[in-house]
Fold:
Amino acid sequence: MQQPTAGGRSTAVPSLFPSQPSLSADFYYTHRIIEDPEWSLITVPHLTELCLQHIVHNFEKNPILDRLLPKHQRKVLDRLSTSLPLTVTANLISDEDYWKRCCTERWQVCDISNYGHSWKRMFFERHLENILKCFIPDTTDPNQVLELIPLCKDYVRKLEVDQFLPPLKVDEEEVRDDLSDTESDFGLGEDSVHHYDLGVLITALPHLEELHLTYGVKDCGMNFEWNLFNFTYQDCCNLAAAVKMCHNLKVFKLTHSKVDDDKTRLLVHNLLDHPCLVELNLSHNLIKDKGAQAVGKLISHSRLEILDLYNNQIHHLGAQALAQALAENSTLKSLNLRLNCVEDKGGEAISRALLTNTTLQSIHLGSNNLSEPTATLFSQVLAQNTTLMSVNFSCNHLGLDGGKQLLDGLAANKTLTEFDLRLTEVGQETEYLIHQIVWANWEAARLASLQHPPAKPL
Structure:
């Protein structure tokens, strides 16, 4: 019989039954194998592999990625944890696959088309946005933002912050009295609800081009109070000063934030002669005529191409100021005044401006209490203007005669490709005939674009 040895091998040992007849050695001797559970056929890893494992496990203390060969860098990056401190990875790792893992492990929906098709940019923009949305003044440590600036400043191009939390501590008298809607509208208790000052942050982001802000609280539930939705005058001062210093800013959106005339004028004062701003969105606010007059001044002293004042409280005086600026402007391409109350005095003023304006391509005047006088004058615009491509008059009371006037104006028009007349009472036949003309223009424009495609940028 054989005696087992280390590693599962065995040696022969005498038979347990030596008195048995010895027919043959193989017949009277048996084998007993005792397996070593630690013994394996797997070969010892290469020294290179052991070194790479060590580098991965100690990367936080000794990040030597740049000293490795490209093939070894790839192996290390594929194994690195996404929970490593940003102080280690931010300015060292540029590999998109690593940042893709960081994004997909943190957020369920990841569309990099909104971030210049860059996973690293997505991670830092969304990470910074999350910090700002959860920042509580006088409670959250400001270093959370300040320490992130040198790590993210080279990658942040756009910030979309749809929530700003107020301080936890509010004025005791305000709590007792439980501010009414009217008191909140007049800004009482503003001293207690100032929000985080973006000044230090956005002026330290040299590549910031878009800023989308909403001052309010999401999902407040049963804890609703009006002062949670109060964009204070001090907030406006801080923001206006910061935006003025953000010289590369191209798009500025401040929506659903109760921006009134005084705050609009303050913002405009700091945006005059801005070198890069091309889009301004102040929709869903409380802007009236004085605020619109200030915006009109901005149109005349800026390079704005897109202006959105949707859902405010602008009447004919404000519309007339915008029209005066529009008549002289040579950059604005899109104007949205939907859901205001410019009425026919404002509509006629805008129509006259478009008789001389040669740059505006799209205008939205839906839900503005417009009627036949505006339609009559606008028919002249359709007949003479060769720049407008999209017009929206929906939800106004233009009437049958107004519709006929617009149809007559369109007879020789070859540029308008969109014309929304829903709920304007112009009549089905007129609306159908207008649709046919506009469709023919659209088809002609499509064929022309196929024959002469736009040149690709260099």
User: Anything to note?
Assistant: Residues 181 and 211 are 29 Å apart (CA to CA). The radius of gyration is 35 Å.
